[in-house]
Design brief:
43% of the residues lie in helices and 11% in strands. The protein contains 15 helices and 11 strands. The relative contact order is 0.15.
Length: 355
Amino acid sequence: MFTYEGEDIFVIDGHIHMWDASDENIKTEGGRQFIDCFYDYHTGFTPEERQWDYEEYQSYGPDRLADDFFTNGVVDMGIFQPTHLRDFYHDGFNTFERNGRMVDRYPERFIVNGRFDPREGEAGHEELERQKEERDIQGVKVYTAEWMGDSKGWRLDSDESFEFLEHCADLGINNIHAHKGPTIRPLNKDAFDVGDVDLAASSFPDMNFIVEHVGLPRLDDFCWIAAQEPNVYGGLAVAAPLAVHRQKKFGEIMGELLFWLGEDRLLFGSDYALWNPDWLVETFLESELTPEQRDEYGVEFGLETKKKILGENAAELYDIDIEEKKRQFQSDDVTQEYGLEGMYGSNTDSAVADD
């Protein structure tokens, strides 16, 4: 477990992927543009000495992921958020099946969410039921800007979407993660607009709507919606890397979020493999509001708040008993099973091998 200023920090990375954008899997020019855009974000925000080469970034595989998460001992658990993009990639980009295989390897460390797209109709409902039966999913990721044939996106507040949200509620799937952030080439920026969260959240008050990327670049719109809808949460993927090069801007974002939502409705996410969680967690913990920002927003961004954002809030949404997990991960049989001997108390240098 990661220790900071003498405090144990249980970290749940709430937004991770296992993608394949290899040349062999790219189906259309859109697929090439998509991964190129990701790589531009990666090199734009990652410290130079921590940047990946392009080829490994395209398709890094399970060993690299396990090594990045476990060897350094920064992240305790991760939540996979699938993004299929089958119009762009032959076998999909970041699929439920590929994510699920990582959960099979490390069942105590990873959670996989499902996904739905209302344009799939009855087949989509059947697929949602399959995902629930196969993995007992607690959440879904929705990607409203995904292309499908002639369609360049959909809305979360549409009648067809509401049918899927009702189906999720019937199945006991209560966490809806919606990508509402910066556009990714060649997708349509307007299809990521955060406005459709409002009606969905008020229409399904017993469900949790986690707005990934906190609506950036529409932070104000997101905050006004979240202030009115107590079941709306903010996922910090994409926002967190700003703490490296745009510290004042990051402080402004956190000030707005803490003012409008409070510390209990914010979740950390690295957006792996856009960025590695180790340096990102460390940067997040080191970040502070300026004195002027503390005065303006009337909030504190101290260690207790950061601990909530880094893991405790996600644990609440996903019924994770942190103290039980700590005991489990500290036991000899668990650390030996995952090849993580010495992770608690000292870091191991060995990577996790393939099954």
